[in-house]
Every structure is written in C-alpha cells, then in structure tokens.
Amino acid sequence: MGIAGGLFLAQQSTGSTALAYFGPQFFELLVGAGDRTLLLTGIFGAIKVVACLIFVVFLSDRFGRRPLLGGGAAFMAVCMIATAVVVKTYPQPEDGTVTSSGMATVALIYLDIIAYNFSWGPLPWPCASEIFPTRIREPGVAFGVGSQWLFNFVWSFSTPYIQQSLGWGTFLLFGLLDVVIVGFTYFCLKETAGKSLEEINGMFDRVDPDAEHGWKDLNCDAASHVSAERHQDAQIDAESVSKHRTAHVESTAGQS
C-alpha cells in the first residue's frame, strides 16, 4: 500500500500537474504577461498528447519501469532547477519583451513535460496494478487511485499559494522534489516489467528463501528423528512380543 501511495505522491510532486493546471501563471513568470502565455499553454498541452502517444506506441514495452522512472525524474530535476536558475539570474523585463533566456526556459518546460509523459505520467498506473498479490490487488489498486486524486487535490489547491510566495523558487521546489523521487525510485521500487505475477509476488514476499530452506531442513530432520524413534519402538515391541510367545510356548511344553 505504501509503495502504491508513494508512486502517485511522486507523480503529483513532479510539478507537471501544477504546470498543466496553472500553465498561464507559470509561463507569465518566464515570458511576462499577455496572450502569448495562452498560446504557450496550448502548445504545452499538444506536446503532452504527442509525447504520451509516442511513449505508448514505441517505448512502453522496450524499457524497464525503473530506468524510465528514475531517468525521467532525474531529467525533470535538471529542467526545473535550470529553469529556476535562469529565471533568478535573468528576470523578465518589465516592458514585457520576450528575451532569449525566457524562450530557453520555455524550452526547458517543454522538455520537462516530455520527460514526464515518458515516465511518471503513464507508468505509475501499471506499476500500481503489478505490485499487489492477487488476493489484495483490487483494494490495493483502489487505494492507489484514491491517493492519486488526494495528492492531485493537495497540489492543485496549494500551487497558487506556493507560486505567489516563492515565485521562481517554485521551479526550484519541484526540481528538488524530483531529486527525492530519484531516490525513491532507486531504493523503493523493484523492476516488474516482463515478469509474471508469480515472479512479482515472489519479489515482494518477505520470507527469506535461505531461512525458508533452513526451516525445511529442520522439519526434515525432525521428521527423520521421529521416524527413527517410531522404528526403534516398533522393533522393541516386536522383540517383546517374540519373547512373550517363546515363553508361552516353553511353558505350554513343560506342562505337557
């Protein structure tokens, strides 16, 4: 459950959802106010659709889950941190002139959303359905989907306040969160691509194979010991019966 919730928390913390919801406000930080922010937001949405289509058709089954998730988060971190540095170093002129630095940051945002749709946009959904054993898959996936909408609400509600308070620092915040997501991918996620459900269940099984083997050996030894004791008892009983019969025969012969 924790991994499923973590997947969707990471998905919503990349900053891409905030960019999708508040694109004009973010582009205003990059190129100034005006109708061009709406145009840039429209291009942003079109790039999302095309990138997701390319991923589904050409990339979804060619690479593992962890490389795409880790690489995507790392690339997004670079894009976000670079955007924050450029916006801080070369602020937008007050007269609304579009500068080369402003267009560079727009390009970085577009690259960021491409990386998102190659990784954290689509992949948490199949990952969340693959990590649960069959007996709890339905409630597990339901928990993951519910957490996705919860974190979506949290970020969509808080982003305007964060942007108003931090300004260019909002990009830095998302960049640092992307760095944390790289660590989450490396330490918490296991590769599930191309594996059967039985193999995946074994990956998340908490029983140590060596310990399990040891218990099996112990059980075999105990069973062998019990069997030997029973065999010995049976031999003793057989000898006792044989002696009793011999004594009975001798007694009968003496009486005769």
UniProtKB/TrEMBL annotation:
The chain crosses the membrane at residues 39-59, 68-90, 102-120, 141-162, 168-189. One of its GO terms (cellular component) is membrane. Its main location: membrane. Residues 235-256 are annotated as: Disordered. It is a multi-pass membrane protein. Pfam families: Sugar_tr. Keywords: Membrane, Transmembrane, Transmembrane helix, Transport. GO terms for molecular function: carbohydrate:proton symporter activity. Gene3D superfamilies: MFS general substrate transporter like domains. It is found in: Membrane. Residues 1-193 form the Major facilitator superfamily (MFS) profile domain. Belongs to the major facilitator superfamily. Sugar transporter (TC 2.A.1.1) family. This is Major facilitator superfamily (MFS) profile domain-containing protein. It comes from Penicillium freii.
